[in-house]
Amino acid sequence: MQTIETLNARYGIAHHVTFKESVGLMVAELDNVHATASICLQGAHLMTWTPKGQQPVIWLSPAAKLAPGKSIRGGVPVCWPWFGPHATQSSFPGHGFARTVLWEVIGTKALKDGATWLAFRLIPTEATRAQWPHSCELVLQAAIGATLDMDLGTLNTGSTPITIGDALHTYFAVSDIAQVAIHGLDGTPYIDKVNGSAQKQQAGPVNIYQEVDRIYYNTDRDCLIDDPAWKRRIRIAKLGSRSTVVWNPWVDKADKMGDLGDDGYLNMLCVESCNAADDVVIVPPGKSHRLSVRYSVLA
Fold it and tell me: Across residues 190-203, what is the average pLDDT?
């Protein structure tokens, strides 16, 4: 079992990484020449990323509940090994168990460009094996600097194929949801989950003026979040993902959630790189699947 003392002794890096305890959870605090960030070992959950001299890029709810076994509202939750509800077991957690169980640190490094690299591996338990009786290894790598790079790798160590759905369920900070637009999905078909899973097609940029919950499928294109008030665009580039989910709960659902904060929906937007709905991934024995993203900020 890793402790704060053993983590700092083995993986702490001066001017890069320090491990601390927060309300019973272990957190990696990062501060390098490019950015600050924080990652909770529960879920290998990146909670914040703020390039130096800029507004936060990754949004963490001010009302987020940090507690053992509970999902954290905001940041970059890891959805695995399924996305959304389980196909046959309604009692299993939505979006899988990866975001609420403990991961172990398996590596840290100060990179030559001043960025910081970390790697985490999910720790299987009896409870996770009961939900996922397959032999595999899940590793998350993150390089945190002027850009944020994340790589979720699933290695099938068993003798039969496995089928997974996965996502980096990223919450982005925005100045005002009514002013932002998402580019890169024009002409893409999507499932409108707010409208009875109706099949539709995007026309032009995506604008948010009500509850939005859409799975855009058969797309591996980059997306751009245009935020004129903060005079920036956030680029989302991905590999190993054939779906993009766009989500904002809007006012009524946000009020019922209890952990989004007062009017929190106005300052957050989820654009998720994933393999969802029919865009699941079959991983043969001895092979791996990697879902990779790069987030960058453009003036």
Answer: 98
